[in-house]
Structure prediction request, 216 residues.
Amino acid sequence: MRRVGRAALAALMLCGTAAVAQEPHHGPGPGHFDGRYGHDHYYSERGMVVRSVPGRPYAVYRGGVRYWYSGGVWYAPRGPGFVVIGAPVGVFVPVLPPYYTTVWVGGAPYYYADDTYYAWRADQNGYEVVDPMAEPGVASTQAPPNDNVFIYPQNGQSDEQQSNDKYECHKWANSQTGYDPTQAAGGVPPDQAGAKRADYQRAIRACLEGRGYSVR
Prediction:
């Protein structure tokens, strides 16, 4: 984000840019470099056919077709193998790609990787592939004031463990404060948003520090 819910990251995706600069391409065959928004990561070329989907793929069904999602790359069946495709808009996945960049449009966070945008949907407990450019607003990697949270593992936590911890701490902080940074105005009355945001950040900081992270 199979880890449905637990690896779904909700609010800690508000940590600005999570892309890793110029990571090597690990997929099969040729790759392309995605530098939009400073994402700076390599992905398999669309249209490339492979014998099998690499990694630990997640199957997604839409319109009677089964797609596969692995490492931020999307695949569809093609003969005896699979072809790399663009992500089908409207499908849901339980976890974000291992490398992503947070992009803000109209004050709402979207998560970008390989020319694809994801948005957290609490009612589905997952991330929807969307087209945020269809909405009013200018895309920016700059988060709204006071919403940046950066975490650093102190005990060698894996990427999967970090995702689980972030999600669980978000859910706990949300339950304690009623504030949800993935919603407009945090899902609270505008006159309470500032105080609730501060309460939420204190709660999530305490939770993450208790799990062995340094929080900035």
Q: What stands out?
A: The longest helix spans residues 159-177.
